Amino acid sequence: MKRKIDQLEPFQRAISKAHLASAGISIDSLENPDKPLIAIANSWNEVCPGHEPLRQLAAEVKKGILEAGGEPIEFNTIGMCDGVAQGHAGMRYCLPHREIIADSCEAMILGEGCFDGVVYMGSCDKIVPGMLMAAARINLPAALVTAGPCYDEIKPSESKALRARFLRGEATEREVIEGTLKYYTGPGICPFLGTANTMGCLTEGLGMMLPMGALWPSSSSQRRFSARATGAAVVDLVRRGVKPSDIMTQAAINNTVRLLASIGGSLNALIHLPALAHELGLDCSWTQIAEVTSRTPVVCSVVPNGDISCVNLYKAGGVPAVLKTIEEDLDTSVMTVNGKTLAENLAGDIFVDRSVIRTQDDPASVTNGIQVLYGNLAPEGALVKTSAVPADQHVWSGPAMVFNSEEEAFVAYNEKRILPGTGVVVRYEGPKGGPGMKELHRVTEIMKGIPNSAVITDGRFSGASGGLSVGYLCPEALDGAPIALIQDGDLLHVDLTRNLIEVDVSEEEFARRKQSWKPVIHENGGHLLARYAEQVGSAKTGAIIG
Question: 462, 465, 469, 538: which is the annotated catalytic residue?
């Protein structure tokens, strides 16, 4: 094995090793050509509950690297908590910070130029995708570790009921905080099938995480053992010369889309998977995803698709059990980070609790858990998580009430101006228009208290959002798209049985309105968000930069 640091010009090699030695790396390790240097790219922090455990888990990763004969070197990057950023302008930074994470890993790993492999450590919504993008871009042998979901003591429906009581004025802030801590019982990933757990499951499905690595619960011994084994696995990948591009192939991406459809995962995956495919030079479009979801049954009902948590899915067998359930629809020849093919990982007896993970032909396992809608309101597509939409709203019509920001919608709600049956349109929240493409999870939560209502937006949703919530509309309002031209009272139509979203406005009327249209420009501070707005692409292609 020829280590990267030993490929440097002799004088620079000596100076680089001297700097590393002064940071505490033993000279003997640096002089041993059979001892690969493994970076640990850790997004540990004390702000995000999904990331707080990563400091301890990094210590376990280091043990695994050392036991396998490697030398660990840890550095940090950032990781925002979407839960803290929800409902205010800070949410505009969450999607852009995916690119910051990928770029910072690139800068550190390629900039230092001394690493032979990488263990990426992150847990939450944009952090795991950012690290997958970095792994694809840098293409050094790598694997991912997350903190795993926290345990929940109450059912998801009980947590939702508590929040609804607060919105009705029947619970205090303290009661909401203390009650929520029975749902989020401690550090770890939030227990529902939001973007964080979805992306963990998809990372395992991609082969970039050890089996069961997505759902071992936080703070469990098995979570620590898995982190330790991951460190050793990356040393082995280095010695065998297996890179992320050998694992994240087109077949692996296709398998991952099938897994996403089968678990009814977060709509945000339809931003992150195209962005990852772009880094890999592969294909993953909304059209391709919709073709799979249209014929793939959702086999488990984890919240928001039901009333169980990701810990229940772990107890039922986790991602391996889901993959075993859909094995016939997968390309099992793909390689994974433990050195085995998917077929080898799924061989033998794999525990599956059929009360949680149904068979595909179970009557409760319906297809189209995620849909792409088209029509004169979304010529290039819009997304809806159909598995979380009540059956009586699969065909819906109602008048539009239009807002040019999330904040405007909150004001109208607090003033009780939003009536039952309304289609709340929140626009200028797309990647460029936001800028930053906010998650409008708080909007979807408050709208649950207004009967037969809908939310339609060019912004995003949390993976935990439910109800009739249609988002990610393309083109976005800032581009002068139809969503920018609709007015209060226009009649909206959503028909999930026909993949349709329309508004009763003729092409001629749209053209007349376009003549007097002026875009709404949100304050962006003139720095990071301003640059992002200038460079970011469409949601349908992954909201990638450039």
Answer: 462
